[in-house]
Amino acid sequence: MGAERLRNRLRVARAERRISQEELAGLAGVTRQTISSIENEQYVPSALLAFVLASRLDKPVAELFYLEGDVS
Amino acid sequence: MGAERLRNRLRVARAERRISQEELAGLAGVTRQTISSIENEQYVPSALLAFVLASRLDKPVAELFYLEGDVS
DNA sequence: GCTATATGTCAAGTATACCAGACATTCAGT
DNA sequence: ACTGAATGTCTGGTATACTTGACATATAGC
Question: Which nucleotides of C are covered by protein (CB under 7 A)?
């Protein structure tokens, strides 16, 4: 899986909602560290988690996550 | 991560495009088995792969993948 | 200065995505 | 009947998502 990276606007979306990492983690059913790691792009989430996060933040998933360096 | 499942319309989208699992795998940079496993929902892909697949199939990711049993 | 909230991060463990190679089945074409 | 394309699936391996528990720092309120 080539050159493109998956970026996200999780931190901004969370700030708009004014909820903490811990609250979002609770809403999504994961740990706080998982949210932190995704925001800092230490790893990319599973597609399931990406969709759940979008759902909890009430945003389309494509607005929260996007490809960078796409070749398509 | 609770009750919801991640479903996908990969097989249909691929049929529309008339490409084989192997071709799609090549486009996405993964193996044929990976495509097969995702179509048969043996596991959910990473968010990166989900977005790459959508890009290669020229569909919005939310059209290819969707949550089922959402509580949101 | 103390305490609580929010965040970063580390280490060790478990679960699962994904790979590589192989074998089997089905179906279309000849 | 044979062949090749497409798909399913198994096994064993590696990479990485995610957990749990802990410790550190920064900031805000009292």
Answer: 5-11, 16-22
